[in-house]
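Lab notebook, page 48
Experiment: co-folding of the full assembly
Goal: obtain a model of how the components sit together before planning crosslinking
Operator: M.T.
Materials (sequences as entered):
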Amino acid sequence: MRPVLALRDVRYRYADAEREAIAGVSLTVSAGEWVGVIGPTNAGKSTLCYLAMGLAPHFFGGRLRGELTVFGVDTRRQKVAERSTRVGLLFQNPFTQLSGARERVSEEVAFGPEWHGLPADEVAVRVSEALRLVDLEALAERHPLDLSGGQLQRLALASLLVMRPELLLLDEPTSQLDPAGTNALLQVLAGLHRSGTTIVMVEQKLEAVAALCPRVVALADGRVIADGPPEAVFADPAVEESTGLPAYARLAKAAGLPPPWPVTVEAAEKAFHRA
Amino acid sequence: MVGIGLLVICLQLIAGVFRRFLVVAITLLAPITVLLLIVQGLVNPANRTVVVPAGGFSLYREGLLIALLTAARLVDLIAATFLFSFATRPQDLAEALIQKGLSPRIGYVVQSALQIIPQTLEMVSRIQDAQRARGLETEGRLLTRARAFIPLLLPVVLSSLVATQERAMALDVRGFGLPGARRQRYVLPDSVGQRVLRWALVALVPAAVVSRILGWR
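Observation: model returned without errors.
Model output:
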């Protein structure tokens, strides 16, 4: 598999920061992977997204060392806006991701492709495709501010998908959504994963990460402390100490089952049956 | 002056804006006009001819005429602004300006500036919800509401700043500011009649200035 995102001994310090937010990370993500990134506050999860998007250092300044390539291009050599056709980054707050200049959902989605100079008929095709992917076709003519939080976050996602990115970075995309909104968004992501989009998702909801991501990377203090399938990562005592465990694994542990603990409902059911 | 006012009001009727203008006319313009009539009619230094004799409080023809002229100017200005702002979609305005050569970045600033008010109101209502949840009284008598306004200021300003940073990043991520790539979003209808009228209006501006200098009324 060709690497989509490759970091070799990457270190990054924000301007005016005392310590490195990313303190020596080596990591390769291949095409089509869905990687969940977990870790406590200040572990460097968001910074990892900013680095992959190029916002760090282009937007934040600061000092970047080591080798960091996305689709083989050094991030230092490519502006964020130029990268936006292949990489998309979804933020936590659905509200602040609106352009603030559009009065209809469909126009909001068209904002990106217009800046890329796509002809109007192609923009229209892409907009309806993106709205279909996030299941917002029915609301295309509404004002963005009339949408719920969950719908807004899907609108923000559609605004990225309209660029047809090959790599999606998600920085805690469900943290401000209710359970229904979270579910709807995760289903959209599962569909994108099936159709081949590479996804790197920072997420606090460990149950969701364990159920959806075939690979989990645990960060702490700017370093990778575990990297592998969810069962293996959550069996690591360092991960348990810094980040905690998904509910099913906590239950299995409390019931006295030996690690690796089950991390999904189905696996937990089987494990309890065997025991 | 009165002719222009009538013309604008006719256009308002066509555009369906007149109803909203009427509210402003009654609540704001009418009292101002009455006030102008009284003050100018009583004390304008050019007052010579008495129209309504009342001893020391007589109203004079010259002052009343000046008051009417000023009021007519106000009505014209406000009616025209009303017609413009309610009959024009900000997006179409910005798009038209961009197609006429305005930088798309500035065009974005125009569009987003026109949307700041509804967005800020949305943010204010969310902060107020949170404050109410923590026991702050935000409704009721005027004094209570005034008191609730002060703790609102800091969070509104701070969250605006945070929102600005995140929005700047989100716009960057969507390709904002790529040089020279942007194409026109849609073709704005521009008939021959509109074009003729537009140029005629442009030509009228120097004509109005010249006529003013020459002292025509």
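Interpretation: Chain B touches chain A at residues 89, 91, 94, 104, 108, 111-112, 115-116, 118-119, 122, 162-163, 166-178, 180-186 (CB under 8 Å).
Next step: discuss with group before ordering constructs.
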